[in-house]
Structures are given as C-alpha cells and as structure tokens.
Amino acid sequence: MEKYLEKFQDLLVTYAPKAIVAILIYIIGSYVIKLILKAAKKIMTKREVDITLQKFLSNLLHWALKILLIITVIAKLGVETTSFAAVLASAGLAVGLALQGSLGNFAGGVLIMLFKPFKVGDLIEAQGEIGVVKEIEIFTTKLTGLSNREIIIPNGALSNGNIINFSSEGTRRVDLTFGVSYDADIKETKEVLMNVLTSHPKVLKDPAPTVNVSELADSSVNFAVRPWCKTEDYWTVFFDVTENTKLALDKAGIEIPYPHSVEIQKEG
C-alpha cells in the first residue's frame, strides 16, 4: 500500500505543476480568444464587411483558435505534439468517414458564403421551412420562423436544395382570389376590388395592382386580385385587403356565395 502511495505522490509532484499551468493556459487563452474575436469583429465592422460574412468568419476563427488552444494545453501536459499530430493524422480517415455529414455541411457553408443566395435578415423558404435568416454558422444556418420558432438547417442540405428568397427583389406580389355571385356585375365588381387596392397605403402603384376574372366556377365567378407591396408589408397587405374586400363587397351589395347542400328525401 505504501508503495502505491509513494508512486501516487511522485506522479502528483511530477504532473500537478503541469496540470496547473495547463489550466492557467486554458483560462488565459480563452480570455485572449475573446479579445481577438472582439477585435476582429471591430475591424470587420469598420471596414463595412457584410454582416453575414462577419458572423461566418467570426465562427470560423473561434473554432480555429479553440483547436490551437487545446493542442497547446495538451502539449503542456507532456504529450508530444508530434506524436499527437501523428495520431491525429492516422485517425484522419476514420474521423473523416465518421464526419462526412459535418464536412458536407462545412462545404455547404463555404458555398453559401461564396455564392450568397441569401444573407442575414432575408426571408427565405428552404427544406420545407420559411423564416428570416438569423445566423449562418460553419455547419448550420439558423432561421427565425414566422411563429418565432428557431429553425436550424444543415448547410449541406441547404446548399444542395431549392431556396426561395423573398427579400432579394425588395417587393412581393400578394396573390388573392375572391368569388362573387353569378348575378353580380363583373365591371362593378372589378371597380370595387380595384378601389380596395388603390386605397390601401401600402399597396404599390408601380407595379400596378391588377384585378381579373380567373375562373367561372360551379357557384361563383372568381377574381384574381394581385396587389404588389414591399416585402416587409406582405402580411399587412394580405390581411387588410382580405378584410377590406369583404366589407367593400357587402357595402356594394355584391354577394359572396357559399356552399349550399341539397337534401333529397325518397318517399316510401
């Protein structure tokens, strides 16, 4: 028992100072990394680097410095960095195979930064999700959904799939359809609908809104109502025009038909 205690004391005397120094290096290194990242962000902001690129480069720099710090700490503990590098290299293939998805996501992130299909703040639809781009990281892109959900999409899938960017053009067309009775006068109905559009302050005059007969349905004449607005005003225009159309049609005495059911009773 005394023999083991002596060995433990020897190990403690040998490695305790190294462990303390390694811990100090990690603490100080982490603080220095924060200072470097803060300075890098300040420089990029001063040089007016795109906010999307700023966040991506900051994330990349953070991970690179963290890896360097960890290698330094391991070396201080007495592990030979050359041996560590050799082990890392020999395990590279296995790690690469295990992290194929992550490497694909990293490559996807680089492609997104190079071709810039969207930027932070854009409203996009991708991988079946719709949201505002919150952050583009090394492996994933974060969106804020329309109901304030956080949506995280892997960059690999994102860069290889279809992306609809609703913000890139600055304006959007609101596609609405309203049905009226066959007894309604088409010309009068078009005037009522157009007045709803032209009287709304957020509906753009250029491109001009349009109202056209789109379908002669079973129980209604359907009108395609197409106002244009700024991207950020889309839902305001959508809901306002829908409500104002109902009020305007009621005021004009134009009927909006609704489904009717006929009950047939068989005698006997």
Overview of the molecule:
The chain has 268 residues and is an alpha+beta fold. Helix content is 53%, strand content 19%. The protein has 8 helices and 10 strands. It has helices at residues 2-46, 51-76, 81-90, 92-98, 100-115, 155-160, 186-198, 234-251, and strands spanning 123-126, 129-136, 140-145, 150-154, 163-165, 171-173, 176-180, 210-216, 221-226, 228-230. A 5-stranded antiparallel sheet has the order 4-3-2-1-5. The protein has a 3-stranded antiparallel sheet with strand order 7-9-8, with helices on one face. Strands 6-10 form a two-stranded antiparallel ribbon. A hairpin with a 4-residue loop joins strand 3 and strand 4. Helix 1 packs antiparallel against helix 2 and helix 7 (186-198) packs across helix 8.
The overall strand count is: 10
> Judging from the principal axes of the Cα atoms, what is the shape?
elongated
Uncertain ranges = none
Instruction: State the helix count.
Output: 8
CA-to-CA gap between the ends?
A: 104 Å
Gyration radius (Cα, Å) is: 32 Å
How would you state the average pLDDT, rounded? 84
Structural class: alpha+beta
Please describe the biggest sheet, giving its number of strands, its sense, and whether it closes into a barrel: 5 strands, antiparallel
What percent of the residues sit in helical stretches (DSSP H or I)? 40-55%
How much strand?
A: 15-25%
Order of helices and strands: HHHHHEEEEHEEEHEEEH
